[in-house]
């Protein structure tokens, strides 16, 4: 599943970093185990970007989530790819999937440059509106 989050009140690199850190802390507070974090430093041509990879465990599934945080048309956004494996005792399966696909997923997300603009997302149906002002759009 791909989820695009728009943070309409965050318009610069500092605000983007605050949002990425808040998401990271939220993941941790919900039992997420951080696999990797990374930041691409700001350059004169481009603002900083951030990457988070976590895994969540539940009794009947494991979920890996990979998120890229970037400014799109001056608005903070995240693009999150999630992969679930259902069943009990699926740790070995998830480990294999992460070994085979984790680095590819990070590269794919960090190389993706055709993110839809926040303005174009406003007209799409929303799966969920969050209390923190984030607007989530889930596409399966």
Keywords, please?
140 residues, alpha+beta, 7-stranded antiparallel beta sheet
Number of domains: 1
Shape: globular
Number of strands: 7
In what range is the share of β-strand residues? 35-45%
Largest sheet: 7 strands, antiparallel
What count of helical segments does DSSP give?
Answer: 3
- Amino-to-carboxy terminus distance: 5 Å
Average pLDDT, rounded to a whole number, is 87
Structural classification: alpha+beta
Q: pLDDT under 50 segments (min length 5)?
A: none
- Cα-based radius of gyration, to the nearest Å: 15 Å
Helical percentage: 25-40%
SSE arrangement, N to C: EHEEEEHHEE
Instruction: Kindly report the spatial arrangement of strands forming the biggest sheet.
Output: 2-3-4-5-1-7-6
Architecture overview:
The chain has helices spanning 13-29, 91-111, 118-121; strands spanning 2-7, 33-40, 49-57, 61-72, 75-86, 128-129, 135-139. With 140 residues, it is of the alpha+beta class. Strands 2-3-4-5-1-7-6 form a seven-stranded antiparallel sheet, with helices on both faces. Strand 6 (128-129) and strand 7 (135-139) form a beta hairpin. It is globular and about 45 Å long. The termini are close together. The mean pLDDT is 87.
Task: Provide a brief overview of the structure.
With 140 residues, this protein is of the alpha+beta class.
Give the SSE map:
Layout: E1 2-7, H1 13-29, E2 33-40, E3 49-57, E4 61-72, E5 75-86, H2 91-111, H3 118-121, E6 128-129, E7 135-139
Antiparallel strand pairs: 1-5, 1-7, 2-3, 3-4, 4-5, 6-7
């Amino acid at each position: 599943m791909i989820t695009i989050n728009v943070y309409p009140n965050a318009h610069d690199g500092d605000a983007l970093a605050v949002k990425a850190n808040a998401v990271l802390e939220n993941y941790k507070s919900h039992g997420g185990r951080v696999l990797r974090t990374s930041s691409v430093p700001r350059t004169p041509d481009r603002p900083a970007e951030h990457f988070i990879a976590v895994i969540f465990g539940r009794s009947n599934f494991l979920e890996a989530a990979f998120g890229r945080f970037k400014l799109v048309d001056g608005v903070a956004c995240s693009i999150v790819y999630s992969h679930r494996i259902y069943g009990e005792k699926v740790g070995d399966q998830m480990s294999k999937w992460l070994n085979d696909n984790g680095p590819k997923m990070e590269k794919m997300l960090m190389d993706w440059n055709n993110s839809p603009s926040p303005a174009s997302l406003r007209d799409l149906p929303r799966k969920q509106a969050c209390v923190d002002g984030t607007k989530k759009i889930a596409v399966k």
